[in-house]
UniProtKB/TrEMBL annotation:
NCBIfam families reported in the protein's UniProt record: hemE (TIGR01464)
PANTHER family noted in UniProt: METHYLTETRAHYDROFOLATE:HOMOCYSTEINE METHYLTRANSFERASE RELATED, UROPORPHYRINOGEN DECARBOXYLASE
General function of this protein: Catalyzes the decarboxylation of four acetate groups of uroporphyrinogen-III to yield coproporphyrinogen-III.
Protein's name according to its UniProt entry: Uroporphyrinogen decarboxylase
UniProt family annotation: Belongs to the uroporphyrinogen decarboxylase family.
Organism in which the protein naturally occurs: Streptoalloteichus hindustanus
Length: 352
């Protein structure tokens, strides 16, 4: 039933607690919920700002980045804010020029060892000082925890070498074969900068961090073990003082390796139900995993699919999220319906 737990404290736990409790594996009064890409193109108020400001301008102006971060929180009772920015944000400080069209595109993709060796190693404070400023502004505006994030070295290197998003990342995967030492040099440089970048975010006040390894699922387990895992580990180990979330998409063949990462939470996509992910990721709290396409259907469908994810979580510590980002065509009212459904849910059976 949905009756409130009579053993709950008389003073309601502030909403700010549920996300951090769940990521630490503790029981919560409700299942915390936030959504990847909760700020952005499906919100009219974001599109409105976008008409007047370029994407980089929005990322690099702390007032705008803070405003966009807060937009979904004004609409929905979300349990966490994720700072508005992008995974390619640290690249310009390393000497890589990026434009948004609307996806990130590099003016000069890295194709040679010389280009990799010519990359800059910025000081921690120069990587993205505007992100730290936006974090401070968001922190002072909301009581819910603020999540910082970065791209994982593998996914960032895939963009850097390919130059843009790709179906097969042929240039990058060719480099892994042709010159694995150059690839490792690139991954190592990106890992060092990413570790500094996330530490700056922690210093500015984020309560947790998420590492987006969006394209890791492209690699075989052997390649991921060599080119993904060690560099993701290096970054995650650098921010051991806050809870960490690791996301890979289309990567269930990598879960036994991902299970060895120093991360409290693994964000899983919709391809496997949570009950099948759990044995592959022992000891990890799961985040996920509603198919973002469920939010394109009518509200009865949204509620039914959300309920199935909650049921699959089985009352164990769980952070409700989508299996990947909110799709741009998502009706905001469906997000409202989803968040209400999750916040109202109480597990029928306590976990055994
Ligand atoms: O609300 C949030 O989740 C925070 C903001 C955020 C953005 N990008 C804003 C953005 C986050 C966490 C990201 C991460 C990101 N960016 C990832 C990892 C997550 C994932 O989806 O796997 C990746 C792969 C990127 C690269 C990227 N940036 C792409 C592919 C695109 C274009 C298409 C798209 O998916 O939106 C961007 C641009 C971008 N980043 C936009 C936003 C709101 C859209 C820009 C616009 O308004 O046109």
């Amino acid at each position: 039933t949905s009756a409130p737990d009579s053993s709950a404290p008389a003073v309601a736990t502030p909403a700010s607690g549920a996300f951090l409790d769940a990521v630490r594996g503790r029981a919560t009064d409700h299942v915390p919920v936030w959504l990847m890409r909760q700020a952005g193109r499906y919100l009219p108020e974001y599109r409105n700002l976008k008409e007047r400001h370029g994407f980089w301008e929005m990322c690099r102006t702390p007032e705008l980045a803070a405003e966009i971060t807060l937009q979904p929180l004004r609409r929905f009772p979300l349990d966490a804010a994720i700072i508005f920015n992008d995974i390619v944000t640290p690249l310009p400080a390393m000497g890589m020029e990026v434009e948004f069209a609307p996806e990130p595109v590099l003016a000069r993709p890295l194709r040679t060892r010389a280009a990799i060796e010519a990359l800059r190693r910025p000081d921690a404070e120069e990587i993205a000082p505007f992100v730290a400023a936006a974090i401070r502004q968001v922190r002072s505006a909301v009581s819910v925890p603020v999540i910082g994030f970065a791209g994982a070295p593998l996914t960032i290197a895939m963009y850097a070498v390919q130059g843009r998003g790709s179906k097969d990342y042929a240039e990058f995967r060719g480099l892994l074969r042709q010159d694995p030492d150059a690839a490792r040099a690139l991954l190592g440089r990106i890992a060092d900068v990413t570790a500094d970048y996330l530490r700056q975010q922690v210093a500015a006040g984020v309560s947790a961090v998420q590492l987006f390894d969006s394209w890791a699922g492209m690699l075989s387990p052997d390649d991921y073990r060599e080119f993904g895992l060690p560099f993701a580990r290096r970054v995650l180990a650098a921010v051991a003082d806050v809870p960490r979330i690791y996301l890979a998409v289309g990567a269930s063949h990598l879960y036994p390796l991902i299970a060895t990462l120093p991360t409290e939470v693994v964000s899983v996509d919709w391809r496997l139900p949570l009950s099948r992910c759990r044995p592959l990721l022992p000891g990890k709290v799961l985040q996920g995993n509603l198919d973002p396409a469920s939010l394109l259907a009518d509200r009865a469908v949204v509620r039914a699919h959300a309920h199935e994810v909650l049921r699959q979580a089985g009352g164990r510590p769980h952070v409700f999220n989508l299996g990947h980002g909110v799709l741009p065509s998502t009706p905001p009212d469906n997000v409202a319906c989803l968040v209400d459904e999750v916040r109202a849910y109480r597990p029928e059976q306590p976990p055994e």
